[in-house]
Amino acid sequence: MELIGFEKVKDGKYLKNYELTYLNKSGREKKYEIVSRKELKSADDLGAKPSGVSIVATNNDKLLLLHEFRMGVNRTVYNLCAGMLEKGEDLETCIARELYEETGLKIKKIKKILPPSFAAVAFSDTTTYIAFAEVEGDFEDNSSENEQIEAKFYSRQEVTALIDNEEPFSSRAQIAAYFFTLGHF
User: Fold this and answer.
1) Residues ≥6 apart with Cβ < 8 Å to 10
2) Which end of the chain has less neighbouring CB within 10 Å, N or C?
C-alpha cells in the first residue's frame, strides 16, 4: 500500500475530515476517508500527537465506570472517564481535571500511564493515553450541560453482571472491565 494523496475535505469545529488516496497492492487507486481532531499538514502528522486520555480508576477494589449518554450512538453506554488534553496542559493535570470534571473525584495515585494508542484505528488517527489510577473523594456533577453522566464504583461481581447482561460499553471500558473482573488490577 502506498499513500499518493492527502487532502482536507472538511473543517468542522471538533473534527477535520481528510481524504487519503492510496495505491492498493494491485496498483489501483483507493480513496479512504478519515477524521482527525488535529490539523494535519502531511501524512507524517497522522497519529503523531496524542489528543487525550482514558482513565481506568479504582477505589477500595471497585472500578469507576461512567454510565453516560453518547450522542454519536444515541444511547447510554458504560465508559471510562476520559477527555482531551488542553493546549499547554501536561498529562497528569489533564488526568486530574477530567476525573474531577466528570465525577468530582480526586487522584490519590497514578499507578501507570500507557503509551499513546489509536482510539479508532479504522477511521481516525486519534491517539490517547490510558492511565491507571487510584482515586478518592465524593461524587459531584461538574459536567457541562451537554453531558449526561452518572459515575459509580462497581464491585467485581457487579461488573461481571454488566458484562454478562450484555450492557452496552465502549470497547476500551469493556476491555478494562473484563480484566478488572479477572483481578488484574
Assistant:
1) 16, 17
2) N
Q: For the residues of the chain, what is the DSSP string, one character each?
A: -EEEEEEEEEE-SS-EEEEEEEE-TTS-EEEEEEEESS--SSGGGTT-S--EEEEEEEETTEEEEEEEEETTTTEEEEE-EEEEPPTT--HHHHHHHHHHHHHS-EEEEEEEEEEEEESSTTTB--EEEEEEEEEES-------TT--EEEEEE-HHHHHHHHHTT--B-HHHHHHHHHHHTT--
Predicted confidence (pLDDT) per residue in 106-132, tens digit: 999 999 999 999 999 989 999 999 999
Q: Tell me if 70 sits within 8 A of 77, measured CB to CB.
A: yes
| Measured distance CA(18)–CA(34) in Å, rounded | 5
pLDDT mean across residues, the chain: 95
Residue 173 is predicted with a pLDDT of 97
Give me the count of residues in the chain: 185
